[in-house]
Structures are given as C-alpha cells and as structure tokens.
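Here is one chain, start to finish.
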Amino acid sequence: MKLKQILATIAISAITALGVIWGYGKFIKPNYEGSNGQQSTLPSNYKYAGFENEAATPPGSVDFTQSAQAAIPAVVHIRTKTNAKQITNSTPRSNPYSDFFGDDDLFNQLFGGGRGYVPEQRASGSGVIISADGYIVTNNHVVADADVVTVSLSNKKTYTAKVIGRDPAYDLAVIKVDASNLPYLLYGNSDNVKIGQWVLAIGYPLNLEATVTAGIISAKARTLGLNKQKAGATAVESYLQTDAAVNQGNSGGALIDTDGKLIGINSAIASPTGYYSGYSYAIPVNITKKVVDDLIKYGTVQRAYLGVSYVDAGDLTPEEKKKIELPSEITGIYVNEAVPDGGAYAAGIRKGDIIKSINNTNLQSGAEMQEQISRFKPGDKINVVYVRNNKEISTTVTLKNKAGNLSMVKQADAMDKLGADLSTLDEKRAKEYGVNGGVVVRKIKDGALNDQTRMKDSFVIIKVDDKDVKSTDDLNKAIADKKTVTLSGFYPGYDGLYDYQVDLDGN
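Its structure:
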C-alpha cells in the first residue's frame, strides 16, 4: 500500500514539474518581440552577454555583469560642435559722416554698430541605440543648436549623425547614423519599476570611456522644474530618481534593469556643484517610447492635452490652501480650471473636481498624471475617475491637441516659427544684390521676429547659423531641428550684414 502511495506521489510530482516547465515556456519566459518598431529577434549584444542561457545567473544572486555586457555596446558617446558666430541685433543705419570719413567700419566701431563674436563651442553627452539601423535617443540639451553631431561606439567606430527631431518639453531628441546591424537596447517597462530595485546607469561621463555605475530606484514621478526653463508650462517631468552615480556627460545615456533592458534615459543630477552628489534622474522609458516614435514618424511630438489646470493639493500647506481658496481637507489633483474647448470639459469635469485615476492607474500627483497623458495622441480616448461631492464619477475623455481640436500636429514651417510672410529671392534681384540667393522677409507678424528682434520688413536672409540659404525650402530645413538660430542677411539699400538671434521655442 505504501509503495503505491509513493509511486503515486512521484507520478504527481513529475506531472506537476512538467506542467510548470510547459507553462513557464508558454506564458512567462520572456519573448523578445519588441514594441515601438524594435525588431522581434534578440539583439546580438544580448546573446553575446549570455541572456539566452537561463542558468547564467544563479537564482537569488545580484550580478550586473550580464546586464552591463549587453548594454555597453548599445550606449554611444555623442560629441557636438557649434560653429563660431558673429552676432548683432541692430537695426539698419547709414553712416551720416561717410562723406567726411569714408569708413563705415570705423564709424560702427566708434558708435556701437560693431558685431559681437561667439567662439566655437564643443560639448559631449551620451545616447542609446534603439534600432539596428541606427536610430539613437538622447537628451534634447545634448544636441540642441549643434552644427555637427558625431557618434562613437564602444568599439571606437565613429559616425556623423543627423538630428531627426527634438522636443524641449520632454528634453528628448532622436538622431540617426547611417549604419546597419548595430547592437541596440530592448525597451523595458518603467511602469513595473519598483522603489528599491537595482539599476545600472551607463554613459560617457566627464569625457571618459563607457562607464557603468549601480544604484537603486529611490523615488518615482519626481519633478525638478528643469524642462520648464526651456518649454514653460508645456514641460513634462516625471523622473525616476536613483542613487546610481551620474555626472556631466552621462546625459542621454541608459538606465537599465538587471535584465539589461532600457527603463530610462539619464537626464539630470541634483547637485550644488554640478557633479554627482547623491541623486540622479532619468526619463521613464514609457514616456520615451512615445516621443521617439512621434519624432521619427512626424518630426514633432503628437502631444495630447487633458484640458485642465490643476494643483497638487497634497503639497500645499493649510495657509497656501487658504490663500487660493482651496478647502483644507482636499488632497490629490485638484482641478483649478477646465478649459471650455478641452476634452475634460466636454466630458463633464469642472473646477473643484479631484482627479483620482486614468485608465485604472491611481494618481497621487500631477507628475504621475502628466506621465499618463504623455503616452497618448490627440483623438485618443481615456477613462478618468474623479471625485465630486465625495462621490466617484467615471467618464471617458477624448484628448485634444493644444489648439483644442483632434487634428494631428504638423511640424511648423519657417513662416509659422518666425511669424512672418517669406518668399524666395528671385534670380534677377539676387544678381542685383550680388548674392546667390536668399529669403525675403515680406511682412513681419506676431511671432518670434516681432517679439525678440528689431528686424524690419524687406530684410533678406542669406544665412542661418553661418550656413547659406537660397530659398524658403533651405530656410525650413535649416531651422527645422533648431531651438535658437542666428539669421544673417542685409537690407537692400543699406550697407553691411546684420545678425538676429531668435529663440524658436519662444522662451
């Protein structure tokens, strides 16, 4: 009898073990079918690091060697060069004493018409290869305003990169090199990141070679206000905070988990000295994926808006709540205003409501809400739960763009960015002026030129950041991926060249 029981127990154990093995292979074992355009096969850098071998790391141990070995080949060193520029922002003037002195340059030197000079600038940062054909994600502040972008791999191969698109609101940019079969990092899931879990930061700090540091996730959904300096109220910040050592040059590099998957883009440090002092911050990969896809596909981010202004009530003192007439017992995301043409207003959300969740994700702060909204595009529908008069209400909100409609956002052309009517200088006029071509500013309207410069109608643009422009198409291409530009040209009938520096982000 006992023998039968023993045999039955062994049989049941064997069947259970086989079932567990089958279930693991069927449902749990990671497959490497990438999202957001990543290839479905496991990249060679992961195979080389031994990730195909499930027994490579003993269960329960913490070992970073595989992760580092897989990630280092896919993290690149980015070097940028910004050409020297001559700058002036003066209006055209003729020299009233030229009949006496015959020297406009001397007059300008004596009476303030001279041209300033900004020397050539060089900088460096890091980036992460996200596809075998050469797409690389980095920070906007790494490549902004660069005239030349050079990418070096860990194996010393070097490429010249093209900026595909940038967005200062997220501090993200996409660049591309002309190459194939490159190692790249697989996307992880930053939603699943837990406080206390191990992570690695990889980059090229202080112009050193590829450097790996380890730490833990110490907080999520952090805001620092850094992007607001560049993008104003449209800035999005919901950082992963870690104590992995990060320094200047790490910007744009990878934050990975112990599986070697990308969970964030290292972007900032909190430091009184400019060097690592304990905490660093990374943009979650679930935000990064959406921005990267949009920049590659559209050249600009398809930004969706809920259509509310809000207050993080939990961060306010009783005195601050009283000052803005907010009930003292209120916590959470308090709606200050629902814009009449916004999606939230159309769905019934009003001032005084408290937003609790989006698509079943509970929200504790505005940063968490921004992180959720940033994953969608205009026209997408989301479920929002809010509280009014102590009662939870669920509603469906159709997100809109900044203009308050459902249209996809187009990349702005030169006329939109500069705020002017422009036309290509015709060949006859170009010969008269002794130039090869240019763009005529026919009418300055509301916009960057009117707000930031003293440029006048009829100005002829012949250079952008010292690069020749001969047509409106040239001008569009020259300013497409720029945050600030210097427009150089002349006024017909006046002597000399004039430069105007313009912030295309309007900040």
